[in-house]
């Protein structure tokens, strides 16, 4: 893999069996994401965007093809090795947030740090600091049930950023945010993520944030139709 490539996907295939019917979610995807860039994946619902980023993040295994992340093939790793690699290198913003309901905002955000061996007190301190950056400094002790959808989304974004991962993968990170907050969050994502040794990939339907992209990959029916420069 070239040294300037963060993600290198070749002929990725994923087929779901839905009770006898087979649905091709990924039909031979070739995609490279460069270090230092923000790549957006756009296209209609059901075209395979979330499946693709789930494979990239090591959450889902492909059926065929390869996907190397910083030169590492997650598919060949043992389970514990993969978990360790993901904890150190990948931040993921889930569309459904996936916050733990019994933990405060700061505790939720601190989880990646604790998984990387940071002591709980220090982890929660860093969690509170990044919550301040996403505008939730006054809600560090709030439970998810005490937060609005947009606030929960910002907690999920803070959790993805807190351990300074080299690859940040986001599924609709601005979908529950108003224009001003979404703009602020995108500025933060770009500031934190886009260094020469990092990359950011975002699935979105939100045309308001297209201007933040370096390149946009247009998907349909499990394939990449085109990749265009957004600048």
Tally of discrete structural domains: 1
Fraction of residues in β-strands = 25-35%
The major pleated sheet works out as:
6 strands, mixed
CATH superfamily: P-loop containing nucleotide triphosphate hydrolases
Written account of the structure:
This protein has 6 helices and 10 strands. Strands 6-7-8-3-9-10 form a 6-stranded mixed β-sheet, with helices on both faces. A 4-stranded antiparallel β-sheet has the order 2-1-4-5, with helices on one face. Helix 4 (120-133) packs across helix 5 (149-161). The protein has 231 residues and is α/β, with parallel strands linked by helices. The longest helix is centred in the last third of the chain and has 15 residues, at 179-193. The protein has one domain: 3-Layer(aba) Sandwich (Rossmann fold), CATH 3.40.50. The protein has helices spanning 49-56, 79-89, 105-115, 120-133, 149-161, 179-193; strands spanning 5-18, 21-34, 38-42, 64-69, 72-73, 90-93, 167-171, 199-203, 215-220, 223-229.
Topology:
Blueprint: E1 5-18, E2 21-34, E3 38-42, H1 49-56, E4 64-69, E5 72-73, H2 79-89, E6 90-93, H3 105-115, H4 120-133, H5 149-161, E7 167-171, H6 179-193, E8 199-203, E9 215-220, E10 223-229
Parallel strand pairs: 3-8, 3-9, 6-7, 7-8
Antiparallel strand pairs: 1-2, 1-4, 4-5, 9-10
